């Protein structure tokens, strides 16, 4: 995009590498910059970003979305499954009654009533007006209460020091993190990396868009077919919906 | 034993320094573990993305719960006006502060970013029960400290009753809030019971009194004194009541959980086939923490030593209970897709294993060591040894 943006990214890289956890200036924090929209456009509640996952298209054994996420957010390959960050994972399911098998990606469901935000003592877990739930990694104290509270195990704790950051996606040892819905891409008008990868692989199992815009593909689809919110009994009003379960 | 004048404590300097050194050693070990964890990250602990709260939380929550419970001794004295408990109110207040400090230190040391403690104190999410707890804890310090001052400074004695009342209600609220930390985790089957918070109060009574009896017994032994048999009898009976109530409530909670279909899988796990958690429940919480102490207390001819032994068992049982509640609750797989068998790279659908490393225990024992050191020093410089008024005691009989 603009030169200004490039400059900003360079500055961010330097700041992330050098200052690490120091707030840049009073009131300005890296995560806010990463989440800021270009063109001085504010995040608005008119938009509700969401995702619809068609489990009938999702292939068992395919992990394109997972790899894309790891690459985009510099999470690295999962070598230690117990402690490595996994923002998105594939779950293989088998219905106990019928034996029907299916596979789906699971990540932060971007709840409208997020338990992680409710319990977070510092307010580091927060929900943007457009429904994206994030962790401000400059306020997170690493208490992990949000991990206890999330019904979907959507969050990971950064267990080790790490190098190689994507300057647009600040991460830090001792903090909790999770799927950001690739907020840095979305704010530029893009789609999350997983969605793009799924389409590139020809599966088209993930649909991303604005649930509030009646004309969007996702809103239309949600109107037409039966979609499911996982653990709907908890009434969290999820941003991520599933088809075929 | 003297009645009117203060019973003086014995100095025994060598032994005193020995105690300090022993406590200091544990504290040092905890500090080493803390530095190691913070430097290398939690990857060097047994905790992971599934068992996010491990041994440090077991010790920390135990200490916090026991801290609020130990204040019960003071409450019975001031709020309900029982002289033998009144004489023990200062020691009870001291122990409450010491254990609270120990528990909070462990909690803080186990944070991913302990360097941001100041952030935790300046950024409050008022909806969070956890933040609410932090406020309760700070208030606890202030109120109990004020309570101690009103009790120990004769000119302020008049206020001690009112501050005592405040402390009493504050600690009930605090323990409820601590219990609610778990109650708010809607997604976890293990914590679904509404009985969680009241149960923590009952537990706190038992653990707190047990801790008190251990310290009181040690102080008397140190000074070559024997606790009056009537006082011993009353206090041990009270411990029995609390331990019995804890057992009863535990039974009620599991029975009601069995009644709700959603909970039966977890109950089955806990009571029958949960491996270490089942063992910790039956052997630790029920037998060591409940039945054995009751047997020791009720067997004829209870001695001071036997009451201390029973109290130690109650404490061990309490740690087992925290392990079952905190770690066991996380080990049981989170049910994301009811009616499906699931598998993934993120340990979905399996019972999570947890092997704590030595450093996690060091951190936990460090909390106990901190409480111990605060107590030892305070007891040495101020008068905390219970001063019984035997004339009044006799009049009461
Ligand atoms: S899925 Fe979990 S992490 Fe995401 S918003 Fe909901 S509770 Fe928070
Ligand atoms: S780990 Fe961080 S984001 Fe999660 S509850 Fe604690 S402070 Fe909030």
TrEMBL record, chain B:
Higher taxonomy: Bacteria, Pseudomonadati, Pseudomonadota, Betaproteobacteria, Candidatus Desulfobacillus
Membrane-protein topology: Multi-pass membrane protein
Keyword tags: Cell membrane, Membrane, Transmembrane, Transmembrane helix
Compartments, as annotated in UniProt: Cell membrane
Primary subcellular site in the record, as a coarse category: membrane
GO cellular component entries: plasma membrane
Organism per entry: Candidatus Desulfobacillus denitrificans
Protein name, UniProt field: Molybdopterin oxidoreductase
Classification via Gene3D superfamilies: Formate dehydrogenase/DMSO reductase domain
UniProt family annotation: Belongs to the NrfD family.
Segments traversing the membrane: 14-37, 57-79, 91-109, 129-150, 162-187, 193-217, 238-260, 280-300, 307-332, 361-382
Source organism, top-level taxon: Bacteria
Listed InterPro entries: Electron_transfer_protein, NrfD-like
């Amino acid at each position: 995009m603009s030169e200004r943006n490039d400059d900003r990214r360079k500055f961010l890289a330097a700041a992330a590498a050098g200052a690490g956890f120091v707030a840049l200036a009073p009131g300005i924090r890296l995560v806010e910059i990463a989440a800021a929209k270009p063109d001085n456009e504010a995040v608005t509640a008119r938009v509700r970003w969401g995702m619809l996952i068609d489990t009938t298209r999702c292939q068992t054994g395919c992990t394109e979305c997972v790899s894309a996420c790891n690459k985009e957010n510099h999470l690295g390959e999962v070598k230690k499954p117990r402690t490595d960050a996994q923002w998105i994972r594939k779950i293989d399911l088998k219905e106990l009654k019928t034996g029907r098998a299916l596979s789906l990606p699971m990540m932060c469901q971007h709840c409208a009533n997020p338990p992680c935000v409710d319990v977070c003592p510092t307010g580091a877990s927060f929900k943007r007006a457009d429904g994206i739930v994030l962790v401000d990694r400059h306020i997170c104290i690493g208490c992990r209460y949000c991990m206890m509270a999330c019904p979907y195990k959507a969050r990971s704790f950064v267990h080790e020091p790490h190098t190689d950051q994507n300057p647009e996606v600040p991460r830090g040892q001792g903090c909790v993190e999770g799927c950001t819905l690739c907020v840095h891409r979305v704010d530029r008008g893009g789609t999350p990396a997983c969605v793009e990868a799924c389409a590139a692989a020809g599966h088209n199992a993930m649909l991303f868009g604005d649930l509030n815009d009646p004309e969007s593909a996702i809103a239309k689809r949600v109107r037409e077919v039966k979609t499911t919110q996982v653990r709907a009994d908890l009434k969290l009003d999820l941003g991520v919906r599933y088809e075929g379960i | 034993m003297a009645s009117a004048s203060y019973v003086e404590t014995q100095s025994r300097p060598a032994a005193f320094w020995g105690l300090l050194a022993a406590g200091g050693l544990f504290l040092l070990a905890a500090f080493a573990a803390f530095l190691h964890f913070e430097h290398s990250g939690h990857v060097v602990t047994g905790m992971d993305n599934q068992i996010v709260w491990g041994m440090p939380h077991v010790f920390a929550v135990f200490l916090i719960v026991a801290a609020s419970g130990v204040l019960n001794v003071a409450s019975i004295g001031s709020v309900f006006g029982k002289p033998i408990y009144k004489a023990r109110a200062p020691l009870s207040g001291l122990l409450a502060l010491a254990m609270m400090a120990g528990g909070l230190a462990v909690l803080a040391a186990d944070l991913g970013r302990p360097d941001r403690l100041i952030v935790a104190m300046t950024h409050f999410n008022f909806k969070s029960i956890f933040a609410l707890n932090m406020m309760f804890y700070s208030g606890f310090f202030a109120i109990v400290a004020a309570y101690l001052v009103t009790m120990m400074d004769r000119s302020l004695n008049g206020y001690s009753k009112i501050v005592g009342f405040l402390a009493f209600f504050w600690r009930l609220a605090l323990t409820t809030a601590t219990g609610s930390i778990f109650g708010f985790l809607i997604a976890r089957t293990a914590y679904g019971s509404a009985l969680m918070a009241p149960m923590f109060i009952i537990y706190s009574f038992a653990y707190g009194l047990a801790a008190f009896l251990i310290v009181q017994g040690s102080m008397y032994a140190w000074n070559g004194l024997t606790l009056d048999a009537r006082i011993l009898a009353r206090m041990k009976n009270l411990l029995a009541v609390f331990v019995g109530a804890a057992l009863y409530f535990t039974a009620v909670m599991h029975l009601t959980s069995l009644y709700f279909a959603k909970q039966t899988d977890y109950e089955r796990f806990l009571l029958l086939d949960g491996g270490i958690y089942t063992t910790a429940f039956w052997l630790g919480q029920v037998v060591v923490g409940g039945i054995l102490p009751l047997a020791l207390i009720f067997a004829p001819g209870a001695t001071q030593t036997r009451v201390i032994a029973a109290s130690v068992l109650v404490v061990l049982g309490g740690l087992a209970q925290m392990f079952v509640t905190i770690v066991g609750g996380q080990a049981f797989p989170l049910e994301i897709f009811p009616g499906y068998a699931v598998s993934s790279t993120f340990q979905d659908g399996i019972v999570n294993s947890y092997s704590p490393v030595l450093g996690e225990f060091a951190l936990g024992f460090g909390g106990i060591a901190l409480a111990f050191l605060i107590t030892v020093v305070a007891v040495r410089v101020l008068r905390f040894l219970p001063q019984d008024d035997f004339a009044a005691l006799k009049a009461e009989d």
